[in-house]
């Protein structure tokens, strides 16, 4: 009988102290696991935001660079003769103007028919915008070109990406041009009246942040050489490119 009572005492459940200790340890393990999972989810969300911001900036930069490379393209350049040793009095290139102005740039290139208005990129209220319409390009015979597009459309999505900085800078503005040879020398017997070839190189800087998390910031910088180099008459007001 005595052994049976001792056996019953040994088979009793946990004491309240032991139960509380066990519950506390369990809660600590659960809290640590929840904290770990929460940290992983936060890092994953931040990583996805960083990737999205970087991809959006890269896509925008690619579009801008691809379009800027076309600046100055003119479908009638060969027939009219923007520059030719056989044609000393060519017409002006109506698409040569490229005007960078800090957070905006305006440029031209021939597209089709009458759709030859000035194009451009600008930053407005945290959104990159591209010009799609403006005053028509002047007819042949005048070198004046409009630099005021009138219609713009969004290039980036303001719901996911905020552009904080956009900068265009001519790192090489053609300040050291090369003379293009003409069939004849200048009246003075020199080459000072020969046209000048200016090679232009643009630096494009874009910075942006995620709309949902301003701490997620990215930037991208790229350089683009304008493929259609600028030919300048000497003097600039003249339409006589080479001595007659």
Can you count the beta strands?
11
Strand order, sheet with most strands? 1-2-3-4-5
Q: Give the CA-CA distance, first to last residue.
A: 135 Å
Major sheet description: 5 strands, antiparallel
Unreliable runs: none
Estimate percent helicity: 25-40%
Oligomer: single chain
Helix count, DSSP H or I runs of 4 or more residues: 3
Cα-atom radius of gyration: 34 Å
Order of helices and strands: HHHEEEEEEEEEEE
How would you state the average pLDDT, rounded? Answer: 79
Q: How many structural domains does the protein architecture include?
A: 1
Alpha-beta classification = alpha+beta
How does the overall form come out from the CA principal axes? rod-shaped
Quote the beta fraction: 25-35%
Q: What this model shows, in words?
A:
- The chain crosses the membrane at residues 12-37.
- Pfam families: N_methyl.
- This is Type IV pilus assembly protein PilW.
- It comes from Rubrivivax gelatinosus.
- Keywords: Membrane, Transmembrane, Transmembrane helix.
- The protein is of the alpha+beta class and 244 residues long.
- The chain has one domain (40-232).
- 27% of the residues lie in helices and 26% in strands.
- The protein has 3 helices and 11 strands, in the order αααβββββββββββ.
- The protein has helices at residues 2-10, 16-68, 77-81; strands at 98-100, 104-107, 119-124, 127-133, 151-154, 161-172, 178-179, 196-198, 201-210, 217-225, 230-232.
- It has a 5-stranded antiparallel sheet with strand order 1-2-3-4-5, with helices on one face. A 3-stranded antiparallel sheet has the order 6-9-10, with helices on one face. A 3-stranded antiparallel sheet has the order 7-8-11, with no helix packed on it.
- The longest helix has 53 residues, at 16-68.
- It starts with a helix and ends in a 12-residue tail after the last strand.
